[in-house]
Amino acid sequence: MKSALITGITGQDGAYLAQLLLNKGYKVYGFIARRSTDTQWRLQYLGIQNEVQLIEGDLTDLSSIMRAIQIANPQEVYNLAAQSFVGTSWEQPITTAQITGVGVLNVLEAIRLIDSSIKFYQASTSEMFGLIQEPMQSEKTPFYPRSPYGVAKLYGHWITVNYRESFNIFGCSGILFNHESPLRGIEFVTRKVTDAVARIKLGKQKELRLGNIDAQRDWGFAGDYVDAMWRMLQQELPDDYVIATGKTTTVRDMCKIAFTFVGLNYENHVVIDPKFYRPAEVDILLGNPGKAKEHLNWEPETNLENLIHMMVEADLIRVRKES
Ligand code: NDP
Ligand code: GDR
Prior knowledge:
- Pfam families: GDP_Man_Dehyd.
- It comes from Paenibacillus anseongense.
- The protein has helices spanning 12-23, 41-45, 62-72, 88-91, 93-114, 148-167, 189-201, 222-233, 251-261, 290-296, 304-322; strands at 3-7, 27-32, 53-56, 76-79, 119-125, 171-176, 179-180, 208-210, 216-217, 220-221, 240-243, 249-250, 270-272.
- It is of the alpha/beta class.
- Helix 6 (148-167) links the parallel strand 5 (119-125) and strand 6 (171-176).
- Residues 7-8, 10-14, 33, 35, 39, 58-60, 80-84, 99, 123, 125, 176, 178-179, 185 line the site of NADPH dihydro-nicotinamide-adenine-dinucleotide phosphate.
- NADPH dihydro-nicotinamide-adenine-dinucleotide phosphate (NDP) is lined by residues 7-8, 10-14, 33, 35, 39, 58-60, 80-84, 99, 123, 125, 176, 178-179, 185.
């Protein structure tokens, strides 16, 4: 039986990846940060909280990562843990650098010191492209991050490439574009919208305050994207891959899809609030998943409309339950 260690197992992607690996027969270990409140709601939502072995630790604490690797003795490590909210990265730039940037080095060092044959996946991001100069971003597009988060992720990306080249570690970097689901954190714009749509529809909220709704994103479904992570580690050679849908949509049009689904007009409810504008914005992202299709035989299965409908439906159920 193969075993895998997932950092960030309590996050959106961690939960879906754990489910995917369990279905493939893996023994799944999760590296979990100590918090004062329970963070396992996503694992519970998927019904897998008793199927995974959780090991406490923190990405900024090398010894705890080493301990986790010694306990799990994994063939594969998926590093999904991060301070992942772009907005917060301006408020906590140093914490973001320590977790999202140097945290990657901690995991790589633990692998190098304990067992350099362990395969490593790094959760890189389209935010590294930032102020892009190419209409469609691929593995060859130059990087120009626009937030402390993007800068920290760029460090994580390059240190993964460097450990591959320096120490022959099987390290893959998945450059994933935005991916969402009913398990998405409420602070991210899609979930903020679908939760608000459910509340407005059920008479619990009147307006939805948003920032830059002209920003464009290439949005896919998290359930599809974790499969690409796994595929990368099954290749003969380690490499980096863009994972995206190849379509981009404005936040405005994503809102339209969500409100229209429940028979509402977004213009009657969305209020622009400068509080949600960012000091530096990534105006447009559009990924080219051609390499992933060719080498990993990976393609997204869920389009944006179906994804947003799935999220609104889940939020309607959730909000109804609250009352
Ligand atoms: P989430 O924010 O949902 O999950 C982040 C996870 O990291 C949580 O489990 C969190 O734990 C954990 N974590 C945070 N800080 C620490 C720490 N110091 N030590 C240990 N664990 C920690 O992110 P997603 O699931 O959406 O994303 C997964 C990864 O992919 C992240 O690295 C993200 O930056 C990256 N990414 C995401 C994309 C997306 O669109 N979703 C696109 C591209 C990259 P807790 O629950 O306790 O807070
Ligand atoms: P992003 O996702 O920054 O792309 O990072 P987010 O959903 O936060 O923002 C997407 C775009 O929507 C605009 N926007 C708002 N965003 C939020 N959160 N709240 C608002 O009210 C709002 N109004 C407009 C933003 O300005 C932005 O342009 C996500 C994270 O998952 C990262 O970890 C990951 O690396 C990238 O996706 C790819």
